[in-house]
Amino acid sequence: MAARKGGVSLRERPHNGGRNDGILSRISTTISQSPIVFQGKRTACKAAFVAKKLLRSTGKAAWIAGTTFLILSVPLIIEMDREQQLNELELQQASLLGTSQK
């Protein structure tokens, strides 16, 4: 074999560990290993982490607000409804008995 200038030919040069991958595979590998893609993935992971924490804290706040409403407001609403029914019953009795309301 005669000595050549410029090193090894394309056939003798190993591609990605000796595999004969196509040019698209080599380009996609090069792009996926670029620092810009790495920073994008890292930023996406951080954004997902923050979104998860925000969603969890929002869920906790919703739980607290819901249980507080149930404990404080629902009994008040029930009592106000009872009071209204009692007033209506008294009005019905007064109209049946013929007494006047002041």
Task: Report on this structure.
This protein is mainly α. The chain has one domain. The protein is built from 2 helices and no strands. The longest helix has 63 residues, at 35-97. The N and C termini lie far apart (124 Å). The relative contact order is 0.04. The mean pLDDT is 81. This is Mitochondrial import receptor subunit TOM9-2 like. Keywords: Membrane, Mitochondrion, Mitochondrion outer membrane, Protein transport, Receptor, Translocation, Transmembrane, Transmembrane helix, Transport.
- For the CA atoms, what is the radius of gyration? 39 Å
Counting helices, strands and paired strands, the structural category is mainly alpha
According to DSSP, the number of beta strands is 0
Total number of distinct structural domains: 1
Mean pLDDT equals 81
Principal-axis shape equals rod-shaped
Helix count equals 2
- Portion in strands: under 5%
Taken in chain order, the helices and strands follow as HH
Q: Enumerate the spans where pLDDT stays under 50 for 5 or more consecutive residues.
A: none
- Biggest β-sheet description: none
End-to-end separation: 124 Å
Helix content: over 70%
Short précis:
Its main location: mitochondrion. The chain is built from two helices and no strands.
Features:
rod-shaped; single chain; 102 residues; 72% helix; 2 helices; mainly alpha
What secondary-structure arrangement, pairings included, does this model have?
Blueprint: H1 23-32, H2 35-97
